[in-house]
Design brief:
302 residues, alpha/beta, Spore Coat Polysaccharide Biosynthesis Protein SpsA, Chain A, nine-stranded mixed sheet, two-stranded antiparallel ribbon, 36% helix, globular, transferase
Length: 302
């Protein structure tokens, strides 16, 4: 299995992600796919890891094959011809425990017993998420959870986890432009997606957004109000890992119950989305602005 790290303009997060891979998955080859970052810390980090990892950088000055998360994921899919499985991880995620033979056997069992499976979700569940609490089906034979598509809009696809790239290449899979589009494509292909009862990675809570090279005042206000920042996890202890592996999987693995972010206040909310989405009036204003810009661009093209 090869690991693909997708990066854009968050040097502190990228460094933390790579260091966690080196600590906990030292025997897996790594490819970093950077989407043309301008952050000096990202550029310095990429220079430092060359020789230890393959580094692919999208040159935005040229018409490139790369560009955007899903184009970069397509590049990873097309370039992983020598392996059946690939781990896709983003720069604001972290590996929180060592990967052992127990995990590798779990992945193999899942894919061998589920011939329609194209992906295994490997992140912890989010407490408070309707998709991660209502309508979860537990498969004790393989140690995975399945989401009810009537509850979750992402029951068939998620952008991170272990992908069975061999099966995806068999159907000439092409990633769409959005997660919703990819979820629909996976449904149409009759693919299935399970979520591991033994997760090993997670998004950092309250992470700063990297979607825009320049943030407006409303975006900055939302991140200030939500205390967005850099909160890496303490690695799980051996006792915590043993509990995770040998507990009854009916005990759902919620990140907020198991993981320990450094620097986050005890009563602080854990946010796993752009801060603007959690403040309705800001989110509505930014959506209106985005629609207006799209209409203006369409008129200019005409």
């Amino acid at each position: 299995m090869r690991v693909f790290v997708f990066s854009y303009n968050r040097g502190q997060y990228l460094k933390n992600c790579i260091q966690s891979l080196w600590r906990h998955m030292p025997n897996y080859p790594i490819t970093i796919v950077d989407d043309g970052s301008t952050d000096p810390e990202v550029i310095e980090t990429l220079d430092c890891v060359r020789g230890y990892a393959d580094v692919i950088v999208n040159d935005r000055e040229e018409k490139s094959y790369l560009g955007g998360l899903y184009n970069n994921m397509q590049f990873a899919l097309d370039s992983s011809v020598n392996c059946d499985l690939a781990l896709f991880i983003q720069d604001d995620q972290q590996i929180v425990r060592p990967i052992e033979r127990f995990d590798e056997k779990h992945w193999d069992d899942y894919f061998s017993r589920n011939p329609t499976a194209h992906e295994l979700g490997t992140t912890f569940l989010k407490r408070g998420s309707k998709a991660d609490s209502d309508g979860i089906t537990i498969d004790c034979a393989t140690g995975v959870y399945f989401r009810d598509p009537r509850v979750s809009k992402r029951a068939y696809f998620t952008a991170t986890g272990i992908f069975n790239v061999a099966r995806m290449r068999k159907v000439s899979w092409r990633f769409g432009a959005t997660e919703g589009e990819n979820n629909l494509k996976a449904h149409d292909e009759k693919f299935s997606l399970g979520f591991s009862a033994y997760p090993f990675m997670m998004w950092l809570p309250n992470a700063k957004s990297s979607k825009f090279q320049r943030k407006g005042h409303l975006h900055a206000l939302a991140e200030w109000y939500r205390c967005s920042g850099f909160y890496p996890y303490r690695d799980m202890t051996s006792d915590e890992v043993n509990w995770l592996k040998y507990r009854s999987i009916e005990k759902l693995p919620y990140a907020q119950d198991i993981l320990h972010p450094l620097g986050l206040k005890p009563n602080q909310d854990w946010l796993f989305e752009d801060a603007t989405k959690s403040i309705r009036w800001i989110h509505r204003r930014l959506k209106k602005r985005k629609k207006k810009m799209a209409r203006n661009q369409a008129l200019n093209r005409e």
